Amino acid sequence: MRTICGLLCLSIVLCAAVLASCQESTKPLPTAQEPYSFMGFTLGQSEESSKHLFPVKGKNNQPRCQNAGPGTRHCAVFKENPATPLLPFLFQLYFVDDKLALIQYEFSSDEYAGMIRSITAKYGAPTDTKSAAFQNGFGASFNSVDFEWINEVSTIVTHQIYNGSRSRSVVSVSDRQLTAEMVKRQPNTDPKI
Questions:
Q1: Where in the chain does DSSP place strands (E)?
Q2: For residue 10, is it within any domain?
Q3: Is residue 50 part of a domain?
Q4: 4-56 residue pLDDT tens
Q5: Residue 89 and residue 167: Cα distance in Å, rounded?
Q6: What pLDDT digit, counting tens, does each position of 144-185 carry?
Q7: In contact, 70 and 107? CB cutoff 8 Å
Q8: Residue 156 within a domain
Q9: pTM for this prediction
Q10: Rounded-to-10 torsion of CA 69, 99, 126, 26
Q11: Which of 167, 164, 161, 135 is nearest to 146 (CA)?
């Protein structure tokens, strides 16, 4: 009888702990009208409020910002990944009328699965998934799976970049309305023939 009571008490305590941890880890997903955020940056925020969030280490990795067309600015940081020194990580922000329109982050493909898990934990299951098969000249092949999250105002797209190997991946987080405006304002650089 004591054993049964002991097991029953232990079961109740374990169930309570599991329920408590589930409630703590289950954060409500953002609403469909909220712009996405990524690594501390939120679409729509100003350039000035964004600068302190750049992943900066060392004085050579300060954000470099420049005008990119009428009312548009582009800021970028290259940072070296200590694990793969030849692969600079590129973090880019694009602003339209001082509102963050687009975030792009390049990273090692070794971290792709972890990035997908993190985005899924924050925003739920992807809205769309696309798969493509690639093959190099020696016959080696791999599958690339791209994911997309879409709400009413913004989009997140993940993509593995194939350039002979799966060395890089990219996450793009965009405000659809601001990004469309940014594209309209890009100067025409087509050659005149």
A1: 37-38, 41-42, 64-67, 72-80, 88-96, 99-108, 128-135, 141-150, 154-161, 168-175
A2: no
A3: yes
A4: 333 233 333 323 333 333 333 456 666 778 899 888 889 999 988 887 776 55
A5: 11
A6: 889 999 999 999 999 987 665 557 889 999 999 999 999 888
A7: no
A8: yes
A9: 0.73
A10: 160
A11: 161
**What is the three-class DSSP state of 187?**
coil
CA pair distance 113, 87, nearest whole angstrom = 18
Which tokens in the block code for residue 31?
């609403």
Report the alpha-carbon angle 90-72-76, nearest 5. 15
CB contact set of 41 (below 8 Å; sequence gap of 6+): 50, 53, 93, 100, 103, 173
Into how many domains does the chain fold?
A: 1
Give the structural domain span for 159.
Answer: 33-185
131, 144 Cβ separation under 8 angstroms: yes
Asked whether residue 1 is assigned to any structural domain, the reply reads no
